[in-house]
């Protein structure tokens, strides 16, 4: 199976080396989920020029990953085995997957009720840490978005700060769509709030949710055993430029050192000047803003955010960027107190 991954990497070099390697894996996952696609579907879904999509199709056929049947592309036995066993989709019940991603009302209601019941025991927010709990609906929207982007199943995930308890939502959803017991992804949480990390740890044990926990202040990250070679980062940082700087630096240090690592960044709407500063910082940190979904996140009584924030979908592109970690005041609360004094 690992030999097949090398074949896939060679196809990537031969056909679309300017794109992230993970694009090839995602194409195979897309075919697996949809059962069959057209070449034009590959071009449109992954924003590839049609000649590139044709070249990828031909090479995947040549190496035995896919076949053509009735003018459509399907996975071969080899491709199916690769997606199931190497990319992690063998643990997933596709019927349950489709019900969740298509918003089946009964599925969503059951998950919402379960997660809401768990979160009733969550510690209250610490305003001095810029905490603000998003709604359960937002949690499920985040999971759905990242599933559709192929950024959860079979991936190594890091939640940098998790007062929303997204890690619990992700593992609850994955457990609900699983065919059998098995870890569909690896997920780690880092947070400074020990009340929160203890709650997530205890919940993980009680609910049989596979979540690894790290406690610590990211400003002193060298004291934390940061996970390496992460595929996907979720973060909802303090709503200051210093906070954004710090959390993006930690993400950069943790992501696998290749083009294509993903970040789901939840960040509040700012005034134009501050927004430009934030987006310039994102680019300086070596990330491409692939998409911004306005008012994607909704919060419970978060007046500092206007109860909403935007979702930034970022892709790691600059491997030469050397992360610098900001250890100044990162919280709105700290900066307000500083201004008062």
List keywords for this structure.
341 residues, alpha/beta, Arc Repressor Mutant, subunit A, Rossmann fold, 7-stranded mixed beta sheet, 13 helices, 9 strands
How would you describe the overall organization of this protein?
The radius of gyration is 20 Å and the shape is globular. Helix content is 45%, strand content 16%. Strand 6 (232-235), helix 11 and strand 7 form a beta-alpha-beta unit. It is built from 13 helices and nine strands. It has 341 residues and is α/β, with parallel strands linked by helices. It has helices spanning 2-16, 22-34, 39-45, 50-62, 77-85, 94-101, 105-119, 136-148, 166-177, 194-207, 241-254, 272-284, 332-340, and strands spanning 66-69, 72-75, 156-160, 186-191, 212-215, 232-235, 262-267, 287-298, 308-316. The termini are far apart.
């Amino acid at each position: 199976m690992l030999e097949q991954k090398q074949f896939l990497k060679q196809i990537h070099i031969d056909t679309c080396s300017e794109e992230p390697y993970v694009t090839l894996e995602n194409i195979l996952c897309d075919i697996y989920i949809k059962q069959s696609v057209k070449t034009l579907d590959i071009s449109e879904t992954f924003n590839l020029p049609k000649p590139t999509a044709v070249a990828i199709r031909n090479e995947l056929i040549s190496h035995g990953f896919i076949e053509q049947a009735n003018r459509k592309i399907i996975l071969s036995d080899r491709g199916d085995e690769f997606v199931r066993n190497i990319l992690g989709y063998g643990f997933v019940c596709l019927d349950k997957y489709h019900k969740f991603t298509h918003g089946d009302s009964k599925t969503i209601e059951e998950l919402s009720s379960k997660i809401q019941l768990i979160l009733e025991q969550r510690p209250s927010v610490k305003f001095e840490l810029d905490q603000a709990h998003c709604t359960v609906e937002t949690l499920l929207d985040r999971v759905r978005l990242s599933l559709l982007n192929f950024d959860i199943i079979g991936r190594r995930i890091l939640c940098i700060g998790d007062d929303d308890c997204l890690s619990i939502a992700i593992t609850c959803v994955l457990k609900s769509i699983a065919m059998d017991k098995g870890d569909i992804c690896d997920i780690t949480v880092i947070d400074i709030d020990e009340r929160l990390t203890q709650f997530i740890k205890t919940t993980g044990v009680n609910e049989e949710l596979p979540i690894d926990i790290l406690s610590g202040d990211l400003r002193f990250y060298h004291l934390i055993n940061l996970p390496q070679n992460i595929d996907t980062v979720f973060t909802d940082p303090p709503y200051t430029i210093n906070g954004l700087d710090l959390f993006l630096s930690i993400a950069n240090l943790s992501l696998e050192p290749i083009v294509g690592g993903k970040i789901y960044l939840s960040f509040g709407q700012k005034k134009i000047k501050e927004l430009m500063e934030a987006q310039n910082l994102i680019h300086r940190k070596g990330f491409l803003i692939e998409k911004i979904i306005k008012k994607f996140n909704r919060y419970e009584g978060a007046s500092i955010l206007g109860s909403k924030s935007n979702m930034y979908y970022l892709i790691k592109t600059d491997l030469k960027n050397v992360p610098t970690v900001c250890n100044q005041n990162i919280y709105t609360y700290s900066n307000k107190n500083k201004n008062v004094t």
